[in-house]
Description:
Layout: E1 4-6, E2 18-21, E3 27-30, E4 54-55, E5 60-65, E6 69-74, E7 80-85, E8 91-93, E9 100-101, E10 107-111, E11 116-121, E12 129-132, E13 141-146, E14 149-155, E15 161-167, E16 174-177, E17 186-192, E18 197-206, E19 209-218, E20 223-229, E21 235-240, E22 244-249, E23 257-262, E24 268-272, E25 279-284, E26 287-292, E27 307-311, E28 317-321, E29 323-329, E30 335-341, E31 345-352, E32 361-367, E33 376-380, E34 384-386, E35 394-400, E36 405-413, E37 419-420, E38 425-427, E39 431-436, E40 439-443, E41 450-454, E42 458-468, E43 476-485, E44 500-504, E45 510-514, E46 528-531, E47 537-544, E48 553-558, E49 563-566, E50 577-580, E51 586-593, E52 602-607, E53 612-615, E54 629-632, E55 638-645, E56 654-659, E57 664-667, E58 679-682, E59 690-695, E60 704-708, E61 713-716, E62 730-733, E63 743-744
Amino acid sequence: MSTARTTPRRRLAAAVLVALAVTTGAAVTAAPAGAAPAGAAAAAGQSPEQNAVAPFPVKAWVVGAGPTGFLSAQSGSRLTYRWTRYEDGATTVLPDSGYLTARRTDIVATGSGDGVFTLRDMGAGTDPLEIDVRPLGDGYSLAAYAGTRLVMKKANATGGTDLHIVGKPNGLLVDHTVTGLPADAEIAGITLDSPESAVVRYTGTVDGVKRSRAAVLDIATHALVDEYETPDVPLSGIAVSATHIAWVEKPANANAQVVVTRRGTTETVRHDLGTTANAAIQLVGDWVTYRQFATYGGGAWDPKFALYAHSLTTRETVKLLEHTTSATPGPLGTQLVRGGTFDQGEGLYRIAPGTDGTRPAVTLVASTGEPTTLELVKPDVPDTIDFDRVTAPVPFAWTFSRQSTRVRVELVHTATKKVWKPEVYHRGGGVVRFEWDGMFVSHNVNIPAVYTVPAPNGDYTWRLTAEPLDGIGPALEKSGTFKVLRKVVPHDFNDNGTPDLLVRNSSGELSLVNTSRPLGSWTAEPGTPLGTGWNTYDQLVALGNVAGSPHADIVARDRSGVLWLHQGTGHALAPRVRVGGGWGIYRQITGGCDLNGDGRADLLATDASGVLWLYKGTGSAAAPFATRTKIGGGWNVYNKITATGNIGGAAAGDLVARDKDGVLWLYLGKGDGTFATRSRIGGGWNAYEGIVGFGDVDRDGRADLLANDDGSTYAYKGTADWRAPFEPRRAIYSYDTLDWDATVF
């Protein structure tokens, strides 16, 4: 409990105007604390001129506030000081820097090191008042601006410090020494509340005892009028009003407490702040507001800098602002705080006494235009990406309302629900981005490795979650759409612009394996299941688009000789459709390239007598093949024939055939469904169970060949030279992916 010593206090005159003559003969008119501008509204701290929301500079803090406007300081290459009127938002940029305000007034002041101080009344717009204290002698130092007066300190002859109130009424320099201080006073701090009052913290000898005190200074009478003993603990904040005095005590190893005493009594209210940090306080009516000290200059936001108010009557505590960066006393017992609320965003807020002790009124008086909640300002995502046309990774970017964020992004393929979560990086200005090369990252659950595979074509949704790292406001969730395009390529069953490998294992399970990446790696991405029961077929052929859709199809012959069509959907295979019976007469069936130049994939088959037959594709799912045409005889010398596409450099599709000795032969297509005379590729090909032509696996513009033995698969890259059509083989898939007796097509 504080002990108070009370002397008579001067009642403040709300309407008194102090006219001071300046050296040029002009006058400065100053309104003391409590004085209201013309037409003052009934609500405390609110006048009609202050109803509109003025602009507040970004990255700035409030320095002072008076009846007609406020002073802000904006960081940059140098500090920029601006005076802004509430009435119309008109702004005056002040020259140079180093400005302060006389609290709760429109007076903006600067001082030089040589003892000359300049006071400008921004509300009245009159000529500046200059106070030169040099005629008073040496040793004066400024403690605070009090309206048109200066509170100054000066060492006395006994080793203590005196306080002086210096002014210039009627053009005459006047110096009053503050009464009530002990001669040996050591001034610990001076907190100005208004042009009429301040709190002086000092240590000195009173009644023969060394004491620490907080005293209320009546500036007009230049006397200490109330004094209160202060505890022997650090004090981090102090405030005074006409009815109360308050400070923040910081005991060692304990939370800080706001201590509020009704002036002239020992009635004290204590409120635990729940933190050991320093706090700034102010008295607003029957409430004390408090906030942890934030860094001036509009630095990083922090929820611990929120503004709270504690009732001195009901002991209720409420949050007024989500965060703050600066604050100053305002006119008519108000407080002006730079901070933010979720409803109205960032700016300067007036905290005014509520009616009949109700919670303080919070009003936005100047706005930066920034939201306090995290907002997405602009997504920069293309509507359509054609990966056959772009030459570089495609940038995806999102601009947020502030920089301190943790952002997670997902790309979701609509048809397959496949998800990729790219790593994003932050750039200046709240921009988060990544660059996409059209690949998805895929993980093999059986092997500790990461793979990139081409993302499928089609519609996508991007989804992002952004969390404010400063903890202010909820996380932000946004989404949008885009489309991926690529041209149709042979043997592409998952619509990602690259050929795929179809594999049937010994149990009859069919799966799709991406072959484009990592080409030459020791293992592959896990296969995508396409169904079971495929061991009912004895011939499986991937022959491209024969049914009219843009996706690759397959035909399969069952053991009764019926041929079935499975249309591709871009991410699966549709249920089978019967093509026809009687296909059991053929020893081998192959397809997958255009042999007659009509733009549609065709089918080839050899019968038991060695005749090669051509089934031209029609593009119709109901009847995918035309009546067969005989190509020629003698093909029973081959135990494997494979349509390869163009591997010899000409325009038409070609054919390779393996004889019983393991020699592989090349038949160049003429473009009319027939072939040129064969040429020898090489021997040793009887080591392979399957030989598959499936298009351009490495995207170099040339068709390639795949061959598999027991569990291993090899790529033969095409050269487009019929004399040596393939490079040496390279292993691309291991036993981790394929069964030993798998059928590859």
